[in-house]
Amino acid sequence: MEKDIPVRRKRKLSNDHLTAIAFLLPSVILILVFVYGFISWTGYLSLSNYNTIVPDFSFAGLKNYFYLFNDFRFQADLRNTLFFTILFIGAVIVLGLGLAILLDQKLKGESIFRNIFLFPMALSFIVTGVVWQWLLHPSTGFNKFLIHFGIEPKWYTDTTILAGFKWGSIEFGLPVAIIAVVVAAVWQMTGFSLAMYLAGLRGIDEELREAARMDGASEFQVYRKIVLPILMPITMSVVIIMAHISLKIFDLIYAMTGSGANFVTDVPGLYMFETTFRGNYYANGAAIAIIMLLLVAVFIVPYLWNSRKGER
Amino acid sequence: MMVTLRIGSVVKYGLLLLVSLLFLTPVYVIIVTSIKPLDQVSLSQMWTLPTAIDFSSYMMAFESLKPNLLNSLYLVIPATLLSALLGAMNGYILSKWKFKGSDIIFTFILFGMFIPYQSILIPMIQFLRNIELYNTIPGLVLVHVVYGLPITTLMFRNFYASIPDEMIESAQIDGANFLGVFKNIIIPLSITGFVVVAIWQFTNIWNEFLFAVTITTGDKQPVMVALQNLSGSQIVQWNVQMAGALLAALPTLIVYIFLGKYFVRGLLAGSVKG
After folding, report:
1. Fold (CATH) for A72-311
2. Is residue B77 helix, strand or coil?
3. pLDDT, tens digit, 9 for 90 and up, residues A190-246
4. Which residues does chain A have within 8 Å of residue B244's beta carbon, measured at their own beta carbons?
5. Which of A20, A63, A236, B69, by CA, is between 20 and 30 Å from B37?
6. Is A105 on the interface with B (CB under 8 A)?
7. Is the ipTM reported for this complex over the cut 0.95?
8. Do A27 and B207 touch (CB under 8 A)?
């Protein structure tokens, strides 16, 4: 009987282990206070009456949240975020994967092309915003070429809502102006998915593809049936990381377009900044921040949960 | 067979060239505009090459961005070094000195890297005011070190996972303790790790905007805030804006050009599953 009991080495924590925990403690405390403590405080502020210059921490219930969900600007922000996120993630994945497959063909000059696609990643969203503001300016930039083809998009100054219908106090549909911001964001972030996919493609055993070709699979089938399924976890990572970038985007839009007419390019990050730091509506700003956090958490918490499980 | 192969690669090169041209368009506009003399700087001549090269816009942009470039430098160096060091220590502990609950602690730390910083901004500013670091570079350093902890911890933890446990065990048998192993085994093996993390943190902190614009004002502002002010100003010519954009981007671009390999490794290491 005795030997059936698993030998559990009930080691007492060694001195070294205690030292390790002691060295980890400062970071844990910093994160506890600066991440979780501050989020809790923001959460409380979002339930307070602190919409004044003089702090007022009295409890207001969900008043600020009700205000936001009935607010034209915030409704527009949610709409814009939704369409920005979908278009941005879609384009970054399609373009990144397409370029990665092209670069994986053992062509000469591969590293030059790769560097061209990757370098915008090293830039700041502010730089990107400043430059693209000019490139997509309705009276200059790309329109100088496009005018020869008889088209002259109004880019980020367009107030059209495509396929719009009245919903709440806003016109729900695709704001055309958001496409201009998506173009700039895609230019900057495609390198990310490209690098991820390229690393994934390089990790696929060439024999696997060779075997499929021997079985008579066309090149297209090889990618569809073998390569893409293997790349699925990478696609998941790209979606999660791009989603959290797009949900909290602020600097690119601040530098490139601002809120736009009728708030067609406004986002929660920009609203939070302006209402808090320009308008002193701290409680409203806190409520926006908490909603942003919840939106990000919807993507991030399952992701972190899964990667923890995957490690075990 | 030969023919289809050639057509195939012509199409591939054609596609790559086309996308490359699109990707390089902003670079062309920045460079061409920033070296134009003032009389050629009109929006209608955006795409035309200058007839003479004039660097005066760089002088003007540098003149107005100089203090802010220095601010960014004073911010980015200590913040990068400190967050890399703390990240190395945390990564070492969380990969080589695992204890009950250490994986959960790691996940709790990691969550901090994804939060929208808007959700901690109001208390953060209040806190910085209380400890009198609001509107100071050390205040910004503190913020970047704290919120850099998750990513640097993650990167080092992934990096140290590739160092075999046996090396540490044999060092312990030789009598090395926790700090001895870190100093004599781990640090010498993590030069690449430090380069990757430092480049990543340098790039992110240099380019960061939200903390910079809310925590500092006036002459304490880092360069990205100053660039935004420059481009938002109605009186600044846009050749000066372009020159300013290039100047502000130059440090991270240079790092990318010379150490791009490590930059990409950081990018891949930061995507949770290392």
Report:
1. MetI-like fold (1.10.3720)
2. helix
3. 999 999 999 999 988 888 888 888 888 888 888 888 899 999 999 999 999 999 999
4. 130
5. B69
6. yes
7. no
8. no
